[in-house]
Amino acid sequence: MRRRSFLKGALLLPAAAAADVPAHLWQGYDFAPGPPVRERLNQGPFDVDQDEGWQTILFTTPSEKPLRNPGLGLVGYAWEESGPSVAARQGRETLEQHVEKMSSLPFVDVLYIRCDWRNVQTRPGRLDLNPVFPLVLDAARRKGLRVAFRVQLSNYSFQPKELALPQFLQERVPFVKIGRIPREGGEFREPRYDHPEFQKAFADLNDLLAAEFEGNPLLEWMDLMQYGFWGEGHTSNYPNPFPDYLTAEKTFVNMTARQLDTWKKIPLAVNTQPDISSVGNRTVIDMAVRAGAWLRSDSIIVEEPVQIEELTNRPPWLATIIEDGTMRHHDVAQIKKDAAGLSMMENYMLHTLDAKSNYWGLWTESDNLAHYNATYPRGFERLRTQLGYRLRPAWVWQRKRYGTNELIIAISNRGVAGVPGVLWLKIESPDKKISLQGALDAGHPYGAGLREASFLLPKGYVGEVRLSAELEIRPGVKKSIAWACEQPLNEDGSITIELKPENDSKWRKGV
Q: pLDDT digits over 175-215, tens only?
């Protein structure tokens, strides 16, 4: 049984108690200001007062080519809740071959691992990472990709034979039977997450993972380790293992706070699952959003209205990760056509653009993905040219002000999402003797939006300057981004701007 086939019935269950954070529309909701902006650039208005002359000195054409910028992309799964690809699980290919094939797909930007706690730790006090981790990190390093992962504290897929927790912890923590397993027989068991031994081991796991991965430039995000099946914040239509709601909420609020406090260099992503299991999800999500965590949903069509509203109306400085919960196999032979004669899978995936998403999950079957892309290429092509943000300096003006030259740069965003963090702009002379930088407000320019900012240059300087950009994805963590324009760029990714001398004939006056 797959997750979405039984989640439909779960939505009919009433919550045991109201969360501390009441239900609300996300559109227009005050989640407090975004990430702090240091060295904020003047972002207007740029009126004609004190105008001593101006002209447009650069305007660029939007590019439709895919870009592998941080904060966006298609996500190839090296490992999912049941393991690697079906071929690797059945011994028809090695794990090394599976990872190599997935990382070689030209449309894959991020490699993702979704594994159990037992796949990263077998003994207290140290990590014992499954071989998929070094294989994925090596492939990402060689091929210019990024890496993300989730460690599941519970997994529906292997019960009753195996549990997600490492054996040493299973021996120390009590489990609660929560309901019969369809078809396989036996009963689902959930740990008492509030038990002292569980909390002690969880704190150790969080610290060990952070010591291993915090600051690794290949890491794109880590999913919060959340309650229940697959770490999604629910146990379907089965009860939770807690004695009461308050115990459940306190437990997961504290576990969320611990993770938010530890991970400072890598974005965390929180699942937006409604609180059908009465464990405090609304409080957890609110905490995570206010701390700058990204959002994710593991479905797009078979999804609750509340999640679509949340994802679409999230604070614009947060990224969103979406996958499909029902047709992840990408098997062309099984994919039906819709009323328009189009691939039903394409219909599904393009809805992630409606939700202003940054990422689309591809699952584990690389052969199917390659065949699907060859048969229905339009879907992935559209995603790769619209997902997330796509920035370019659409206009650059030079003005005479305050006895010197001022550059006003209009950054256009042709993507569907805002900038996931803070965008930094840098102006440098070719010899780097002049180097100026500053930041835009968090999230700007928003999806399909534009933001202006200015630099005052040293008096008397004319000639070339080079404009480049970085994304501050977490406070103090910057990553270079590529401009999405057709005009030629320099080797370092910057674009050249030619300043005009005092006697240029094209100077205009404001009216």
A: 999 999 987 789 999 999 999 999 999 999 999 999 999 99
Rg for the chain, CA atoms, rounded: 25
CB atoms within 10 A of CB 47: 8
Predicted pLDDT of residue 510: 66
Q: Are residues 375 and 465 in the same domain?
A: no
How far apart CA 179 and CA 158 sit, in angstroms, is: 15
The whole-angstrom separation of Cα 2 and Cα 333 is: 20
Chain centroid to CA 438: 24
Q: Could you tell me if residue 275 is inside a domain? A: yes
The pLDDT confidence band at residue 463, using thresholds 50, 70 and 90, is very high
Residue 45 lies in a domain: no
Q: Which residues contact 339 (CB under 8 A, 6 or more apart)?
A: none
User: Are 214 and 266 in contact, with CB atoms under 8 Å apart?
Assistant: yes
pTM beyond 0.70, yes or no = yes
Q: What is the mean pLDDT of the chain?
A: 93
Residues 145 and 187 in one domain: yes
Answer with the one of 386, 403, 426 that is the final residue of a domain: 386
In a domain, 504, yes or no: no
What is the extent of the structural domain holding 407?
A: 54-63+389-498
Q: Which of 467, 414, 472, 468 is nearest to 443 (CA)?
A: 472
In a domain, 463, yes or no: yes
**Confidence category of residue 505, pLDDT binned at 50, 70, 90:** confident
CATH number for position 216: 3.20.20.80
Yes or no: say if 144 and 108 are a contact pair by the CB < 8 Å rule: no
Residue 55 near residue 509 (C-beta atoms within 8 A): no
Are 444 and 415 contacting, i.e. CB atoms less than 8 angstroms apart? no
* Planar angle of CA 380, 383, 389, nearest 5 degrees: 150
Distance CA 72, CA 471 (A): 12
348 and 444 in a single domain? The answer is no
- Nearest 5°: CA angle at 422, between 418 and 425? 105
Cβ atoms 226, 251 nearer than 8 A? no
- State residue 185's pLDDT score: 82
